[in-house]
Amino acid sequence: MSALLPVSVTPRTGESLESWLEHLADVNGLTTAQLLILIRSRGVSTRYLTVSPAPGTITHLATLARVDPDAVAATTLAVFDGTALDLTGLDPGDRHSYRQVASRGWAPAHGTQICPACLADTNTWHSAWRLLIVTTCTRHQSLLVAQCPSCQRPFRDQRHSHLRRVGAVPVCGNPLGAGPLKQCQHDLTTVTQTLAAPGVLAMQTRVDTALGRSPVPVLGQETDAAAYLSGLRHLTTLLLHIARQPGADKVADWAASLPASTGTRRWGIRPPGDPGIRPHALATADTVLAAPDLDTAVTMFTPWVSLTPTTPDGPLGWLADRTVMTATLTRLVMAARAPHRRLSHHLDTQEHPIVVDTRGIPQVIPAPLYAEHLVGASSASETTVRLFASLCLARMHPDVTSWAKAAEILGMPAAMGVTCARSCSATLLVDNTEWARRLDSVWDGLRDERSPTGRWNYRNYEAKIAHRRLLYRWFDEWVKECRRATRPESRGYALTWQWVHLAHGHLHTSPFWRGRRPNAAERANYRKFETSLDEEQQRGLRSAFHKRA
Asked: How far is CA 519 from CA 499, 525, 547, in A?
């Protein structure tokens, strides 16, 4: 057994093996070359030393330095096996086995990123800096630096040794090619850093949580660390490919930074090293995964999917060819490709008359406007199409970004908007452009002062009818003047008639039902009441609406 080193150094938390060994050499008065010779004595292998060395190598290092073997093992990249890395198949006895790891993508290669502020504070290199999914130091809220400003190469770019000749000194130390003793002497503590954007910091915080093997919320559900990191990597890979399509720069600013000359890049193997691209691409992907639910995530993801080019394999084939379709990513893509998602993106991005006040939109488009503009546009029922048209008009408001919000802003349950959009968009008989053109005409009709429906505040009409639910005078006067045989129990049906025909509200949201959905018998009884009214009785209900209740 080799002699023990006289001075022991315990690795810091998160410190890389090469950083620890350089400090160990310095405190014992050895060059890094001498320390490596000492380590290799008695046939100890240093293959994959910083990644995942043989157990015997770990034991030898721990004995030599008089430290805990677990502390030594924690300095290697093996600590990330099962989270950011999959080291399955790596064999220290086989010099070709790392190819299996590299083929899975985003595997550490030669070199590392650094945080100059951390080096200035502790002169410690972190093992996590070698991970491509790590882009930011959350402690100093700054992007990691990937290249020496002096020699223009990645840090620790020596290919024939695990350790730098300069030892633990916080200078670059890259060989300059002018002799074995010539190394770059740039002071790493003086390298300029860029503050990380809030979204990048939020992403890195979630990544750090996962690297610590804690679960991370994905689409509102706690997800194990490996699944989250895998999903983040593969979604980022897909976004990088889509980002090279025309119009991507309008979806994300960082897309414009992708060089046009990159050709067909295998982003799944190695992402861009540019700190202006990779952190922001990861942050964009993480924002989608961090959404509280699938619906919100898809709203953010749909603009990207809409950029998918037309190919013989179809959109889904193009997407699947450019990344690994994890279960989460498959859910996102399929949901984003649904007809109502494509329509919502069209409404959100195309030029339309701007809807500045949703109070001018009823829950259900008036029948005359339906007859004039919407007949033949869908195979769904008339009432469903009128409801869907109202939801679409609400989507044209700049602040309404989902079908759920469109329904809520019109005074309906959120689920009602999502369900209607999902079913009705699939029944459209015209393309999205034609449907949007017809909606523009409907909106013009709603705003036309000469129209019976023009410039109404439908929310006020709804509130007025809801207030009359507990009042009787208006109903009693109508019965006396127009329909003496009507029973008192029909007051709710009369109220609902005003709700449907005057406020143009949906039957299911009438205040008579007290916030619940009417059952089949109740709907049938209302329809019977509705069809029983003659023209004089209908005029009476209209007149009663404007009288004091």
From this structure: 18, 10, 31
**Per-residue confidence (pLDDT) for residue 266, from 0 to 100:** 86
Closest C-alpha to 50, from 88, 100, 99, 90: 90
Integer Cα distance of 93 and 277 in angstroms: 37
Report whether pLDDT(222) > 50.
yes
DSSP assigned state of 131: -
Distance CA 125, CA 138 (A): 15
pLDDT tens-digit readout, 18-43: 999 999 999 999 999 999 999 998 78
Task: Supply the pLDDT for residue 302.
Answer: 87
Contact indicator for 387, 509 with CB cutoff of 8 Å: no
Give me the mean pLDDT over the 426-437 stretch.
85
Tokens, residue 500: 């449907």
Query: What is the number of residues in the chain?
Result: 549
Q: What totals of helices (H) and strands (E) does the chain contain, helices first?
A: 23, 4
Q: How is 301-367 classified by DSSP, letter by letter?
A: HHHHHTTPPP-TTHHHHHHHTTS---HHHHHHHHHHTSHHHHHHHHHHHS-------GGGS-SS--H
Using DSSP, state whether 112 is helix, strand or coil.
strand
Residues 6+ apart with CB under 8 A from 196: 135, 136, 141, 142, 143, 204, 279
Tokens 């949201």 belong to 509
pTM for the predicted model, two decimal places: 0.72
Give pLDDT, residue 1.
41
Dihedral Cα 38, 39, 45, 50, nearest 10 deg: -140
pLDDT in the model for residue 549: 61
- Residues ≥6 apart with Cβ < 8 Å to 389: 365, 370, 374, 439, 442
Domain ranges of the chain: 1-194, 198-337, 344-447, 459-546
Structure tokens at 403: 């079908």
Cβ contacts of 29 within 8 Å, gap of 6 or more:
none
Average pLDDT, the chain: 90
102, 147, 504, 523 from 498: Cα distances, Å: 69, 71, 8, 15
> DSSP code of 102?
H
Per residue in 179-201, pLDDT (tens digit) is 667 899 999 999 999 999 999 99
pLDDT at 430 over 50: yes
Token pair for 340 = 């109502």
| 428, amino acid identity | L
3-state helix, strand, coil in the chain (%, to 5): 50, 5, 45
Q: Is the pLDDT of residue 165 over 90?
A: yes
C-alpha closest to that of 304 among 318, 290, 13, 196? 318
Interatomic CA distance for residues 479 and 481, integer angstroms: 6
With vertex at residue 13, the alpha carbon angle to CA 10 and CA 16, rounded to the nearest 5 degrees, is 80
3-state SS of 263-285? CCCCCCCCCCCCCCCHHHHHHHH
